[in-house]
Amino acid sequence: MYKLILLIFALCASVCYGQNDRYVTFELSGVGGIASLNYEKSFFKKGINDISYRFGFSVTPIDKNNGMVLIFPVMIHDVIGKTAHKLDIGIGQSFSVTTKGDFFILMPISFGYRYQPEDKKYYLRLAYTPLVSYLIDFQWQHWAGFTYGYRLNKRE
User: Fold this and answer.
1) What pTM was estimated for this model as a whole?
2) Cα separation of 64 and 67, whole Å?
3) Helix (H) and strand (E) counts for the chain?
4) Which of 102, 39, 38 is nearest to 70 (CA)?
5) 39, 41, 45: which is closest to 57 by C-alpha?
6) Buried b (16+ CB within 10 A) or exposed e, 126-155
7) Angle, CA of 111, 115 and 116, to the nearest 5°
8) Dihedral angle sign, alpha carbons of residues 12, 23, 62, 92
9) What pLDDT is attached to residue 18?
10) Strand, helix or coil for residue 12
11) In 10 A of CB 101, how many CB atoms?
12) What does the alpha-carbon distance between residue 60 and residue 57 come to, in Å, rounded to a whole number?
């Protein structure tokens, strides 16, 4: 288990080093449960589209029988727009494991509004983020989230 955690941190560090348009985000509610910390990196820009990936971590209490759940959301987002007001659409996978050893996967989807001023180092996002269960039975869980993102690098 410790080797897996060390491998995840090593991969994250190698991905995060030396990249442009990097953000650390805090998401209240949303794809990571109650709250999550995330890393976001833009990797493709063309016209009004800016495609980025995001991965994060969250810990959420469930109940006495299941204990806590560790959630690892991984998302791909397309931010569409030329001004500070943008459309943010995303899809991904959320890997979760409880402290009792149960493992499950959900597919988060994100449809939201993103306010990202060019002259500031932050952005705000408000999104409808349903969680879709599709492996054993199909369920659509309505959810929403608010995100504050802080840019780690200077704009070039």
Assistant:
1) 0.82
2) 5
3) 1, 10
4) 102
5) 39
6) ebebbbeeeeeeeeeeebebebebebbeee
7) 120
8) negative
9) 46
10) helix
11) 8
12) 10
Closest CA to 151 of 19, 21, 14: 21
Pairing of strands 35-46, 144-151: unpaired
Mapped onto helix, strand or coil, the DSSP state of residue 9 is: helix
Boundaries of every domain in the chain: 2-151
Q: Please report where in the chains the tokens 């988060």 appear, as a residue.
A: 108
Q: What share of the chain is helix, strand, coil (3-state, %, to 5)?
A: 10, 60, 25
The whole-number mean pLDDT for each consecutive block of 10 residues of the chain, a chain of 156 residues, reads 51 51 93 92 93 94 84 96 96 92 91 95 96 86 95 78
CATH topology for 2-151 is Porin (2.40.160)
Question: Cα(17)–Cα(38) distance, rounded to whole angstroms?
Answer: 15
- What integer pLDDT is reported at residue 12 of this predicted model? 52
